[in-house]
Amino acid sequence: MRFVISGLFGMLALSPAAALASPVYFAIQTDITGAQTQIDAAHSTTWTISTGAAWSFGGGTFTMKEGSNTTAPVKLTVYEGTNFTGTLVASLELTNAAFCAQVAQCQSFNEIDFLFGTPATLDAYKTYFLNLTSTANDRANQQYFIKGASADLNFVDASGTPIPAGYFQMGSLPPITPPPGDPNGPSDPTSPSGPTGSGGSTGSTGSTGSTGTTGPSFPPAVVPAPGALGLFAFGLVALGATRRHFKG
Question: Strand ranges (DSSP E) for 34-174?
């Protein structure tokens, strides 16, 4: 996979103080097989992820096209929780003109960027809902279309390096048990991470209660040391007009 960034980075004079506090990662689709699905006033494309470490979400690149009569905007929104009723975290709306300005032919499938001006902070051990929506009319040739909508997302940094293990996983989860010693975890590391078993019935001897199950947990997240990557990611979002392409 090749990750290409273009921009006037030579015009940026960044100091170490400008480095972001947490690494910035971008959503990409690695499986765009299968039928296209539409995005319009009656249809949306969504993903749910849960985090195992704090990191910054810079936006994403999705394989999309417009219909021959599409004029409505399209929006990427992030909520904390499992649906659009949760707390708004970040949102970016592309006008139809901005959507088409990214590619030579916007009625053919191409990689379309949705880059937040300021990366959204995703906290550790939370669930987030990513939603691609449009007010486009639910009629042929007026909607947007996307490939790979049902596939899992992956995340990479500004150089195309995959997100470290333990930073996220697809789907919503019950309350996540952090590893012992994690500052976000319970104060008592010996406390059980799953529900306790029910007690046995009373009698001459009594039956033994069932054993509780262990709650879901992430492997310890590998946090990269701050350095050039932080500066590079900061420069990426500071430009605003960045272009990125992911090609297999």
Answer: 37-39, 45-51, 55-66, 74-80, 87-94, 110-122, 127-134, 144-146, 153-156, 168-170
Checking phi first, is residue 148 left (phi over 0); if not, alpha (psi -120 to 50) or beta?
A: left
Sheet containing strand 45-51, edge to edge, reads 87-94, 74-80, 127-134, 45-51, 168-170
CB–CB of 3/58 below 8 Å?
no
Type of residue at 153 = L
Would you list the DSSP string of 203-246?
SSS-PPPPPPPPPP-PPPP--PPSSHHHHHHHHHHHHSS-EEEE
Q: For residue 80, what are the CA distances in angstroms to 43, 46, 124, 223? A: 21, 13, 12, 22
Task: Give pLDDT tens digits for 102-145.
Answer: 999 999 999 999 999 999 999 999 999 999 999 999 987 999 99
Q: Are 132 and 39 in contact (CB under 8 A)?
A: yes
Contact by Cβ (8 Å): 45, 132 = yes
Return the SS3 of 164: coil
Cα separations in angstroms, 121 against 20, 25, 31, 86, 232? 11, 11, 26, 15, 17
The 10s digit of each residue's pLDDT in 155-189 is 999 999 999 999 999 998 765 566 666 665 544 44
How far is Cα 245 from Cα 32, in angstroms, rounded to an integer?
A: 15
